[in-house]
Predict the structure.
Amino acid sequence: MTSTVPKTAPTAGVPVGLTTTRAPFIELAQSAGELYIDQPYELYSDENHDTWSRLLERIRPRWERYANRKFLEGVDTLQLDMRRVPRCSDINRFLEPRTGFKAKPVSGYVPAYKFFDCLKQREFPTTITVRDGSSLDYLPEPDIFHDVAGHVPMHTDRAFADALVKFGEFAERAARRAGEIRDEKERIQVLTSNMKGLARFFWFTVEFGLMRDRPGTAIAPGACRVYGSGLLSSYGEIAHSVESPTVQRFPAQTEWIINQYFEIHHYQPLLFVIEDFEHLFYLVHDLERKLDAGLLDNLQPGEPEVNEVDLKSFLDAALAS
Ligand SMILES: [Fe+2]
């Protein structure tokens, strides 16, 4: 669905901005029930462009120091403009020919099943608002800097992109398995547990994953590089995740990851470390095997809590399968 929301700014000639905390265009789209939208580029204000520029400028040296090589190659591939908020259409000109992935503008929160299903279609739901320029560091919800600068560079890598598609397939299989359960209470319990497992795995890998540094390029003996987008888009936490002696860095293992709860509103005290991307792809394969074997059906309770919207999105898929 493309947007039918009017793009006219209230004050002619002065863009009202697409700021996370105030974006009338987004509010209108949401109230009209429009999830997939066009990116109304002319609405970005000078402040939005300035915020993007400052975010990118200050994090670049930290990317050089802490990010993994494939991410840095992806940043080069995308040719992100330092001065202007990116257009998704420009991003996609560089991205789609490499892996088939596209940044797909959305008006806000995408229910969990729809999010995973987009990945299956090689579409990445992309927030188009920019955080407020007065709070560069802290943002409880995603913005375009997190989604485009944090996530999309990794989508230029063929094997990583293929792994993302698998998450969409896992969601489909989890829904289909739950759809075969007659008893409603049991169906919801099993589905909720599977959803937790998928969310935790996604969180501790795609969003907050660390990778063992390769010999010869180590920041320090035993140090890590970052491949998780939540870290790559956080000026403070990218350094904290690698340098802080208070962070627990555990070897990544599927059964530990899917049973580990997490909270989103503070720096992560516990992160999982993969050896290399081959290790990650093995873990994704292992998750698939465990899901099919029913080993995600009764996971440790706790965060993330499964909200009504996300559960409904999976239940709808389960009952349609
Ligand atoms: Fe994210």
